Amino acid sequence: MKLIKKGAEGDLYLTTWNKQKSILKVRKKKAYRNPLLDEKIRRQRTIKEAQIIVEAKSFGVDTPLIYLVDIKSCSIVMQHIEGTLVRDLSDSKLVRCCNKIGYIVGTLHKNGIMHGDLTTSNFILSKNKLVTIDFGLANKTSKPEDHAIDLRLLKEILGSAHVYIMKKTWASFLSGYKAIVGPTRLAQVTNLVSVIESRGRYATVV
Ligand SMILES: Nc1ncnc2c1ncn2[C@@H]1O[C@H](COP(=O)(O)OP(=O)(O)O)[C@@H](O)[C@H]1O
Ligand SMILES: [Mg+2]
After folding, report:
1. Residues 172-202: pLDDT tens digits?
2. Does 120 contact ligand 1 (Cβ within 6 A)?
3. Closest ligand 1 atom, residue 137 Cα
4. 53 in ligand 1 pocket by Cβ < 6 Å?
5. Exposure of 136 by Cβ count < 10 A (0-12 exposed, 13-18 middle, 19+ buried)?
6. pTM for the whole structure
7. Is 120 within 8 Å of 196 (Cβ atoms)?
8. Domain annotation for the chain: domains and CATH numbers
9. CA distance 115 to 136
10. Which residues face 69 on adjacent strands?
11. How far is Cα 171 from Cα 120, in angstroms, rounded to an integer?
12. pLDDT tens, 127-163?
């Protein structure tokens, strides 16, 4: 088993499951939490992540297959997705992918799911499919305010990590998102993004 990432929430290992290359995601104990509460939180988050990964498939969002959920050890074994992280794509491919990300996020939102961590490291371009991963911070919510938080984070990532093409990627994302949620909902959510951004600006002035 090879450790591929030590994250804030959990550790990721490359492993094999029934001879298939797989990913093991384990939520570690947090020493600063009360042990009973810590176990409860880790178990709930493990269950929720696995449930949402599976649910997303039911409305056509590609996610890894879940092979095993072990509540006791707070771990999930899932399909390893072969491909390239959207973060590492060339500029022109990134712009095209952002349109697909718009469709994906629109579909998740329309079905009452907020991803919670929309970064370009949480999408893998695999053959010609775009697979969404890392639902560790996902939540069931249809509130436009929550959906605006998703959009705001993605916009921030595009503006910092992919600054030269931010305008293009953002426009490409919005056109995909609009195709799914419709113009009225798009306007509502993007207005809320502006509200969050203006709050951010005040916060830095004070
Ligand atoms: N199913 C998967 N297939 C292939 N790579 C994965 C998979 N899940 C995670 N990874 C890789 O591990 C990294 C971290 O996993 P992720 O679930 O996003 O955890 P974190 O909460 O630490 O961001 C991803 O950015 C990706 O490179
Ligand atoms: Mg991640």
Report:
1. 999 999 999 999 999 999 999 999 999 876 6
2. no
3. 21
4. no
5. buried
6. 0.94
7. no
8. 2-79 (3.30.200.20), 84-205 (1.10.510.10)
9. 8
10. 76
11. 16
12. 989 999 999 999 999 999 999 999 999 999 999 988 9
